[in-house]
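Preliminary data (for renewal application), iron/sulfur cluster complex.
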Amino acid sequence: MTEPTPTPDASSGLLFTPVTLGPLTLRNRSIRSAAFEGMCQGNAPTPMLRDYHASVARGGIGMTTLAYAAVCRSGLSFPHQLWMRPEVVPALREITDEIHRAGAKASIQLGHCGNMSKPAMAGCTPVSASTGFNLYSPTFVRGLRAGELPALARSFGEAVRMARDAGFDAVEIHAGHGYLISQFLSPYTNHRRDAYGGTLENRMRFMQMCIENTLEAAGSDLAVLVKINMHDGFSSGMQTADCLRVASELERLGAHALVLSAGFVSRAPMEVMRGSMPIRSMSYYMKRGLFRFFARHFGRILVPDRPFCEGYFLDEALQFRRALRLPLVYVGGLVSRSKIEEVLGCGFEAVQMARALICEPDFINRLRQGEERCACTHANYCIARMYSQEMACHRHCTLPPALQRELERAERKEAGRR
Ligand SMILES: Cc1cc2nc3c(=O)[nH]c(=O)nc-3n(C[C@H](O)[C@H](O)[C@H](O)COP(=O)(O)O)c2cc1C
Ligand code: SF4
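Predicted structure:
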């Protein structure tokens, strides 16, 4: 008589083993990646933001990350974006309490939008490494004076102290995707001739100051993750070799883990997330006016497609794995249990996911119960609406027919690529 094939236990495997990142231990190796929720009002958290992260925590995640908090007012892009200041600490504390009650840990992404800031929100002309015009925002940009940089770097430390007061277990510094730290790192946006421009050593100096302030404020009990680019995504930006040097420098400075991503919002936005941007959906939610007209008619040129495939950053991330010793977090195109196990099997300490958890906040529990893949179709509606609406997945919305048709077309295109 032949033995029956044992049913594989979905709750075993690398995903459901604990992992330690600096002073922090997670119950499993899944992290909800920083993905802008747009659930703030007046730049302060709302109950909706609390309820979304509580649902991800109840859904089994190891740690969930609140996205995209500006460390000071000049770093703001949107009215529905979080701005770290003492008044928001009690509301953030309610969120971390809910996350902890569900057994997960809480992280917050801290950054500064630099040339992506909006004058009305930032209360000043947007600032960056160098003076110029950001076509994507679109806005004039003022190059920061060297004397302004220490105070800006200190605001990272101040934001970390507020994160601790609010009960967070970790902070994630945003040093990628073409935001302020990344604008200093990239030769595309940094044309300075002083100690902060020119060579890579100089271009890393502002990042070093921000990380030193962060680590000092984090002390011995708050984990510090840094999200970086492995490349910017175009020839005049940062390439892999330089990004490897940035990663080594962050290891030397004492970051507890790096999150490996790529792309540059003002030049190669879909490099970050891959697939196509549903332009009609994006312009639909914009206020009427010139920018909406521009987005509708020139969006395809401004936001070109980049092909999606599952685990699209894995090959490049492996180069970083081989070169570095500190814990590394993989992010980019994870939607199935088999790929998650493959990535963890390659030596990454943890995985981050955004869209899988926008589509199914309880995706981790589903994996534990034996499900193999989430239902995300990568039509990217969630990305299209994030600039003006709160985060939502099109699978949970009733949409006007024209948007529905656009997304169905995108879904067919993505399905054909699989
Ligand atoms: C709606 C949406 C908003 C995002 N906002 C942010 C953000 O605020 N900060 C960030 O670092 N990345 C952001 N991302 C990128 C994700 O964190 C992640 O790097 C990317 O989506 C790839 O992961 P995924 O394939 O699991 O979605 C966002 C992604 C999505 C879909
Ligand atoms: S809107 Fe589309 S891409 Fe975004 S989470 Fe939902 S299914 Fe995935």
